[in-house]
């Protein structure tokens, strides 16, 4: 069953100023003015995540696959 949980954070920056770093349990987003570090509630596959910038809405969407500990 897929989770529909999401987190919305507003950071005012130009897309080329953003640096996104995702590890198994953390997401870090930084710009010249802001630094955001979030401890994720579940382990994720940081190597296979997707980030997409929507220029019209000026929104960065990050999608991460949760790594399940159990085989079910």
UniProtKB/TrEMBL annotation:
Signal peptide residue numbers: none
Pfam family, one: PIH1_CS
A GO-annotated cellular component: cytoplasm
UniProt-listed CDD domains: ACD_sHsps_p23-like (cd00298)
One of the record's GO molecular function terms: dynein intermediate chain binding
Domain PIH1D1/2/3 CS-like, first and last residues per copy: 17-66
One of the protein's GO biological processes: axonemal dynein complex assembly
Family label: Belongs to the PIH1 family.
UniProt-listed PANTHER family: DYNEIN AXONEMAL ASSEMBLY FACTOR 6 (PTHR21083:SF0), TWISTER (PTHR21083)
Name of the protein in question: PIH1D1/2/3 CS-like domain-containing protein
């Amino acid at each position: 069953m897929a989770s529909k949980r999401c987190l919305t954070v507003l950071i005012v920056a130009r897309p080329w100023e953003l640096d996104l770093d995702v590890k198994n349990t953390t997401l870090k987003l930084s710009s010249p003015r802001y630094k955001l570090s979030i401890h994720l509630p579940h382990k994720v596959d940081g190597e296979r995540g997707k980030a997409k910038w929507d220029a019209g809405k000026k929104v960065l969407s990050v999608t991460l696959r949760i790594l399940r500990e159990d085989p079910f």
